[in-house]
């Protein structure tokens, strides 16, 4: 015989169904039942691109914005993994996942804005707009011959510029996804409470 859903199981199933549908329409929750899912993959991309940019820093320390973007990618991955565990541990579902999703969304927004500001006015195909850009030039030092930067060729600057702009886009996408996820989860939880309150 098919199992009978209790009054509490129905809204919970609906809430999780909401998360699943978010995943299917590519606006998934960072902590949805689908793994890998777009937001999880986006966070991996952010982390990977940021680490690559940092590893190829030639002079001086890695720009703070690059290090921060790597942190946001790691935080997004953490939120996704905790959310996956929350599917099997109800004690983590709710406030814990909301807080993580909220922090991740703010981190992605801050990282995206920082990159957008630093890349403002740059044209990846025009080295005059990318040379001497802190995110792209690999660091610069002063020598007897003048200032020398880690990257000064069109190809190298174009590649790093394209990567940095992709990083920016993925951080903004992750921000939007996390906001949608928190909203969906919150309203699903309220629906759950209302449903139980209306059952006699």
Which key phrases capture this entry?
200 residues; disordered C terminus; mainly alpha; two-stranded antiparallel ribbon; disordered N terminus
Question: Can you characterise this structure?
Answer:
- The protein is mainly alpha-helical.
- The protein has one domain (36-187).
- Helix content is 65%, strand content 4%.
- The protein is built from 6 helices and 2 strands.
- It has helices spanning 9-24, 38-55, 64-86, 95-118, 127-130, 154-198, and strands at residues 140-143, 146-149.
- β1 (140-143) and β2 (146-149) form a beta hairpin.
- α1 (9-24) packs antiparallel against α6, α2 packs antiparallel against α3 and α3 packs antiparallel against α4.
- The longest helix is centred in the last third of the chain and has 45 residues, at 154-198.
- The protein is elongated, with a radius of gyration of 22 Å.
- This is MARVEL domain-containing protein.
- It comes from Rasamsonia emersonii (strain ATCC 16479 / CBS 393.64 / IMI 116815).
- Pfam families: MARVEL.
- Keywords: Membrane, Transmembrane, Transmembrane helix.
């Amino acid at each position: 015989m098919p199992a009978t859903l209790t009054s509490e199981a129905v809204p919970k199933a609906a809430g999780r169904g909401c998360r699943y549908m978010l995943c299917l329409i590519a606006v998934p929750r960072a902590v949805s039942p689908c793994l890998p899912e777009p937001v999880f993959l986006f966070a991996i991309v952010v982390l990977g691109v940021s680490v690559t940019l940092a590893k190829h820093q030639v002079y001086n320390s890695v720009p703070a914005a690059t290090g921060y973007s790597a942190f946001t990618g790691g935080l997004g991955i953490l939120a996704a993994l905790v959310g996956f565990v929350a599917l099997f541990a109800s004690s983590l579902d709710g406030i814990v996942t909301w807080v993580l999703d909220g922090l991740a969304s703010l981190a992605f927004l801050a990282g995206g804005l920082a990159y957008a500001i630093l890349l403002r006015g740059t044209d990846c195909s025009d080295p005059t707009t990318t040379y001497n850009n802190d995110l792209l030039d690999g660091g610069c030092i002063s020598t007897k011959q003048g200032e020398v930067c880690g990257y000064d060729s069109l190809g190298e600057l174009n590649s790093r510029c394209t990567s940095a702009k992709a990083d920016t886009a993925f951080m903004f996408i992750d921000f939007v996804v996390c906001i949608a996820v928190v909203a969906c989860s919150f309203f699903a939880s309220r629906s759950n409470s209302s449903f139980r309150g209306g059952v006699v």
